[in-house]
Automatic annotation (TrEMBL):
It is a multi-pass membrane protein. It is found in: Cell membrane. This is Major facilitator superfamily MFS_1. Keywords: Cell membrane, Membrane, Transmembrane, Transmembrane helix, Transport. GO terms for cellular component: plasma membrane. One of its GO terms (molecular function) is transmembrane transporter activity. Signal peptide: none annotated. Residues 15-505 form the Major facilitator superfamily (MFS) profile domain. The lineage of its organism: Bacteria, Pseudomonadati, Bacteroidota, Cytophagia, Cytophagales.
Length: 511
C-alpha cells in the first residue's frame, strides 16, 4: 500500500511541476507589462502625454484581460475536444512569442502611433493565450489528484500567478540595478521581455514529455468526448446555471481581490504615494515571499472544511479593510506635511534646463533631495516655464514630489499591510481551482470552468488598476475613490456566493 501511495505521489508531483512551470512562465510574460507600465507608457506615447500616457498604457494592459474570456472559449473547446496537454502547449507558444516580440517593438519616437497599436495587438494575443492556459493546467492537475486532496494539489497551480509576478518583479529590479535607471528607462526595460523566450523553450521541452490526463484519456477511449463543448456548456440550463454561480458568486470577487492586493497596491504606492521605483517593488516582493505558502495552506484546508467560506471570508475582509489600509499608505507617504516639522536636511539643488515640447518656451527644473528626522527621503522638484512673450501670464511654479523612501517603521508596516492583502488573495484563490473543476463534468470541464474564471479575473479583476486609476482621476474624487470599484464587486460577489454556493468538499465525481 505504501509503495502504491508513493508512486501516485511521485506521479502527481511530476504533473504539478511540469504544469506549474509552464503556467508560472505564462504569468511572468503576462505581468511584465503591468510591472513596467510607467516606463512603457513613456516609450509608446508622446513625451508631453503626461498622465494620459499611464492611463493609455493601463488600457492596453487591460485589453489583454478583456479578451481572456474569448481565449477561454477557443482553447477550452479545443481542450475538451483534443485534450488538455496539446492545448496548453499551444497557449504557451503563443504567449512566449508575443512577449518576445513586445521587447522588439520600436518606440513612439521611431514609428509613432504604430508602436502602441502593435503592442496592443500582441497584448490581445497574450490575453487569448492566457485564457486557454489556466483552465488546462488546473483541469490537468485536478484530474490527476486523488479524491480528498484536490484542494491541496491544485493550490500549487494557484501559486504560479503570484510567483510569476514575483519573478517578473525580481528580473526587473535586478536588470535595473545592474544597468542603472537611465539605461533601463531608455532600452533596458526590453530585456525582461526578451529573456522570457529562454524560459518558454525550457517549458515547452518539459511539457512535450507530459502524458494526457488519465480521466480525459478514459473518456476518449470510451467515445464519450463532447461533440460540441460550447453548446453543452452554455445551452444546458443546469450547467449554465453553475457557470453563472461560479462567475458572480466566486471568480468575480476573487478577481478584484487578487488584482487589488497585488497590482493596484503596487500602482498606488508608486503613482499615488510616489514611492521610489525599487522601494515599491521590494515591498511587494517581501509580501509575496511571506504570503505565497498560504495558497497551499488554504487549498489544503478547503479539503477539510470546504471551499465556500474560506473564499468568501477573503472577499469580506477585503471589503472591510481596503480603505483603512490605503489611507495608511497615504498618511505614511505624506511628506509635504511631514517636512513642515520634521525636515532634517536637504541637498544642493540640481538645475536642469530644457524646452517645452513643441514650443519655444524654456523649462527649468530645480530638484533637491530632502531628508526627514524619521529617516524618510524624497526628491522635490520645482518646475518653471520661462516664456519670451511679455504679455503672457506668469506661470505658477509646479512642485513635484517623487522617489519617496520610507522610514524603517513605515516600511515594515507597509510590507505587513501588503502582506495582509496577499493573504486575502491566497484565501480567495487557493481553493478556487478545486472549486471550479468540481462544478462541471469531465467532457465539458475545460470550457465550462475557463469562461467564468477568465471573465471574473480577466474582466472584473484585470480592470482594477485601470478603472481604479481612472476613477481617482475624475474631478472631485480623492486618491481613495478608486477603491470603491473592487470593494463594490467583492461585496456583491460575497452576497451572491453566500446564498447560492454549496460548501463543497470533493463531493463531485471526477469522471
Amino acid at each position: 500500500m505504501r509503495s502504491t501511495e508513493s508512486n501516485v505521489t511521485q506521479s502527481i508531483t511530476q504533473v504539478i511541476a511540469a504544469s506549474s512551470l509552464g503556467t508560472l512562465i505564462e504569468w511572468y510574460d503576462f505581468y511584465i507589462f503591468g510591472s513596467l507600465a510607467v516606463i512603457i507608457g513613456q516609450q509608446l506615447f508622446p513625451s508631453d502625454a503626461g498622465a494620459s500616457a499611464l492611463i493609455n498604457t493601463l488600457a492596453i494592459f487591460a485589453a489583454g484581460f478583456i479578451v481572456r474570456p474569448f481565449g477561454a472559449l477557443v482553447f477550452g473547446r479545443l481542450g475538451d475536444l483534443i485534450g488538455r496537454k496539446y492545448t496548453f502547449l499551444l497557449t504557451l507558444v503563443l504567449m512566449g512569442g508575443s512577449t518576445f516580440l513586445i521587447g522588439l517593438i520600436p518606440s513612439y519616437s521611431s514609428i509613432g502611433y504604430a508602436a502602441p497599436i502593435l503592442v496592443l495587438i500582441l497584448r490581445l494575443v497574450q490575453g487569448l493565450a492566457l485564457g486557454g492556459e489556466y483552465g488546462g493546467a488546473a483541469t490537468y492537475v485536478a484530474e490527476h489528484a486523488p479524491v480528498g486532496r484536490r484542494g491541496f494539489f491544485t493550490s500549487w497551480i494557484q501559486t504560479t500567478a503570484t510567483l510569476g509576478l514575483f519573478l517578473s518583479l525580481g528580473v526587473i529590479v535586478l536588470t535595473k540595478n545592474i544597468m542603472g535607471a537611465e539605461k533601463f528607462a531608455d532600452w533596458g526595460w526590453r530585456i525582461p521581455f526578451l529573456v522570457s523566450i529562454l524560459l518558454v523553450v525550457v517549458s515547452i521541452y518539459i511539457r512535450m514529455k507530459m502524458h494526457e490526463s488519465p480521466v480525459f484519456s478514459k473518456l476518449k477511449a470510451e467515445g464519450k468526448v463532447s461533440a460540441n463543448p460550447l453548446k453543452e456548456s452554455f445551452q444546458k440550463r443546469a450547467n449554465f446555471k453553475m457557470v453563472l454561480v461560479a462567475l458572480f458568486g466566486a471568480t468575480m470577487g476573487q478577481g478584484v481581490v487578487w488584482y487589488t492586493g497585488q497590482f493596484y497596491a503596487q500602482s498606488f504606492l508608486e503613482n499615488t504615494c510616489k514611492l521610489d521605483f525599487n522601494e515599491s517593488r521590494y515591498i511587494l516582493l517581501w509580501a509575496i515571499v511571506f504570503a505565497t505558502p498560504f495558497f497551499v495552506v488554504f487549498g489544503s484546508w478547503s479539503d477539510k472544511v470546504g471551499r465556500k467560506w474560506i473564499m468568501l471570508t477573503g472577499m469580506l475582509l477585503g471589503v472591510l479593510c481596503y480603505r483603512p489600509i490605503y489611507q495608511y499608505f497615504l498618511d505614511a507617504t505624506n511628506v509635504t506635511e511631514m517636512q513642515k516639522t520634521m525636515l532634517l536636511s536637504e541637498s544642493e539643488p540640481v538645475i536642469e534646463r530644457g524646452l517645452v515640447p513643441d514650443k519655444a518656451d524654456s523649462l527649468i527644473t530645480t530638484t533637491v533631495t530632502k531628508t526627514l528626522t524619521n529617516g524618510m527621503t524624497f526628491k522635490e522638484s520645482k518646475v518653471e516655464v520661462i516664456t519670451e512673450d511679455v504679455l503672457a501670464e506668469v506661470p505658477a511654479v509646479q512642485t513635484v514630489i517623487k522617489d519617496v523612501t520610507l522610514s524603517r517603521e513605515s516600511y515594515i508596516m507597509v510590507i505587513l499591510l501588503v502582506f495582509f492583502q496577499v493573504v486575502l488573495v491566497t484565501m480567495v484563490y487557493g481553493p478556487i481551482a478545486a472549486f471550479l473543476v468540481e462544478l462541471f463534468p469531465t467532457q465539458i470541464r475545460y470550457t465550462s470552468m475557463s469562461l467564468p474564471y477568465h471573465i471574473g479575473n480577466g474582466v472584473f479583476g484585470g480592470l482594477v488598476p485601470f478603472i481604479a486609476t481612472l476613477i481617482a482621476s475624475f474631478q472631485g474624487s480623492t486618491p481613495l475613490s478608486g477603491l470603491w470599484y473592487p470593494i463594490g464587486i467583492a461585496a456583491l460577489s460575497f452576497v451572491i456566493g453566500a446564498v447560492y454556493i454549496d460548501n463543497r468538499r470533493d463531493e463531485n465525481v471526477m469522471d
